[in-house]
Amino acid sequence: MNTEKLIAKDLLKIKAVFFRPDEPFTWASGIKSPVYCDNRLTLTAPDVRNDVENALAEAVKTYYPDAEVLMGTSTAGIAHAAITGHILGMPMGYVRSGAKDHGRQNQIEGKLEAGQKVVVVEDLISTGGSVIEVVNVLREAGAVVLGVVSIFTYGMKKGLERLAAANVENHSLTNFDVIAETAAEEGYIKADDISRLIAFRNNPSDESWIK
């Protein structure tokens, strides 16, 4: 079984990704969504956590063999960066969402020297805004950001365009299309729900997918 499928099955099994097309969730932005994603649940499921962290480590080795430091996004990416760093025997740190208001007022936690090659570890990419902010902080500190590894991406047009415009490369372990297809195969959703889910992903502000 390939990695995309394995991670999709894992995330569905522990309800880290949960589809509810007939009773949509409402995001903070007000957008109605047929899917809920909480990859923090992978941390409390050791078998799934093992699959995820080993796959993240493999992604770093495959796509970014020159990486010197891993940097997690705050807060969701921190644990994944730490475990992946442990597997690879690499240093890790993380980037706060804002600078501390006390002590040394760091926004980057952990040792990072100008010129070091960094890979950012993120749990989920939707519109791409938060991970791009992290990349910008690291670039301003003089780091060479090789790219991002993440557990799951929605593959939203806005997110893809923003990442491309910011010159940020991302490799996700699995994606929305694979998870939707796997969910139908395993009976979590009906086969005719897939097209509704893809319609949401392609244009979240258009609610015509809601029956």
Question: Overview of this structure, please?
Answer:
This protein has 211 residues and is α/β, with parallel strands linked by helices. The chain has 7 helices and 10 strands. The strands form 3 sheets. The protein has a 6-stranded mixed sheet with strand order 7-6-5-8-9-10, with helices on both faces. Strands 1-4 form a two-stranded antiparallel sheet. A two-stranded antiparallel ribbon has the order 2-3. Helix 4 links the parallel strand 8 and strand 9 (144-153). The longest helix is centred in the N-terminal third of the chain and has 18 residues, at 46-63. It is globular. It starts with a helix and ends in a 9-residue tail after the last helix. The model has no long low-confidence stretch (mean pLDDT 94).
The major β-sheet equals: 6 strands, mixed
Helix content: 25-40%
Radius of gyration: 17 Å
Residue windows where pLDDT falls under 50 for at least 5 positions: none
Strand runs, count: 10
Sketch the topology as an H/E string, one letter per element. Answer: HEEEEHEHEEEHEHEHH
Mean pLDDT over the full residue set: 94
Based on secondary structure, the structural category is alpha/beta
Number of helices: 7
Main-sheet strand order equals 7-6-5-8-9-10
Shape: globular
How far apart lie the N and C ends? Answer: 34 Å
What fraction of residues sit in β-strands?
Answer: 15-25%
